Task: structure prediction
Amino acid sequence: MMTGALIRAVQPVGVVFEFHKHLKIRKGKNMKIFNTLSRRKEEFVPLEPGKVKMYVCGPTVYNFIHIGNARPMIVFDTVRRYFEYKGYEVNYVSNFTDVDDKIIKAALEEGVTAETISKRYIEECKKDMAAMNVKEATTHPLATEEIGGMLEMIHTLIKSGHAYQAEDGTVYFRTGSFKDYGKLSHKNLEELQSGFREIKVTGEEGKEDSSDFVLWKPKKEGEPFWESPWCQGRPGWHIECSVMSKKYLGDQIDIHAGGEDLIFPHHENEIAQSEAANGREFAKYWMHNAFLNIDNRKMSKSLGNFFTVREISEKYDLQVLRFFMLSAHYRSPLNFSADLMEASKNGLERILTGMEKLKDLEKGAAHTGGKAEEEEKISEAKALVEKYEAAMEDDFNTADAISAVFELVKLSNSTTDADSSREYVTFLKETLEKLCDVLGIITEKKAEVLDSEVEEMIKARKQARKEKNFALADEIRANLLNMGIVLEDTREGVKWKRV
Ligand code: AMP
Ligand code: ZN
Result:
């Protein structure tokens, strides 16, 4: 039977719901973002109240993505999730660069079309993103499907004197015509020009100035090309993002993001193109993640010191990779190591075990009224939520936010038992779930997969391959991977192992 004290103690449960309302009221009030443009933290003020327009430069698809490429995907997906948690509507656009020298090279090596290569690796990249719990973008535009918009913007730039056509048909952006050139990378155009004046790059003799950059270039033998008023050819790399951002988000956006290697020249050139063509400021906040390193050197395909996301998925659940990426502030370099991955695995396990306990208690706890001391603990938990939010609002400090989550798990573990009230347990569970969801951590422990289930799926894959339904076969393989099962096609047949 309930005593007076217990009845009073039920009150905080009402506060739980106010707590959810409370999240909406504080929308973006104290949000600080480090803006590469000003090189300082600025208060986030959206262009349109309650909405965020975000563009994140996506990968060039000529191979499986490596875990360096995964860093911006995870970081900016988390930024998006935090805005959504705060009640913002986020329009998130991220492109795939599907025409590029590296794609063409890979196609020639394999003796297939560039499209075959790019389509294959877009699909593979999407599977990796799903396994890392990166949400699909509102739009994932492809460069090859936006050529019309690129021709239009290049035409506008030529008409206004910001671009010119060289004799061979190449169209260059005239950097000297854009007075703010260098404002993002804090480079001085005169220095850029004088530094390179003497260098004549083969194939770029038609440039008026060495700092000018390509908007459109003539085709080479065996390359994909499109008709244009200047020559049969293909776009330079930078123009696609200016065009896709304009088409899907408008002339001006809130946030433009990517890895720090994109600051110059890619983002500097995007600003020049967009602002010269549209006549207004392009993006208000420029966010850049630092590199993921290995042995303190940037992980990259060209250096050959990389792991693909797929390789890592054979050793770890990709939730661990995600948790590892968020264990550091996104603007700090992060060194990849087995030790840090193990530490992330253990940390994640601690959270998931804490969550399991709450779920079990919720099923079992029959009390409908809280205990007096639970009221106090709810206040402590709410203070931790505030700590978490303060960390996230300080330029998305996920490292400190994760510390707050650990403290919440500790509080939960030490203050719940079979005697706890259902309200208290549910409050802790829902709070923990919400905070984990912003970080993209799935709080369900993976169900045990039965051998018989795996065998059935392998049989279905074999059948699909026999029927030449390779899409289905690949899907089954990806599903198995998500369940922690890796397949190996050997001469003796398919072998599988758990990871
Ligand atoms: P790319 O396919 O080279 O254009 O790269 C796609 C995205 O991954 C860009 O935002 C890059 O800045 C980012 N990126 C590439 N390598 C790394 C790395 N080692 N660490 C962090 N970000 C990276
Ligand atoms: Zn871009």
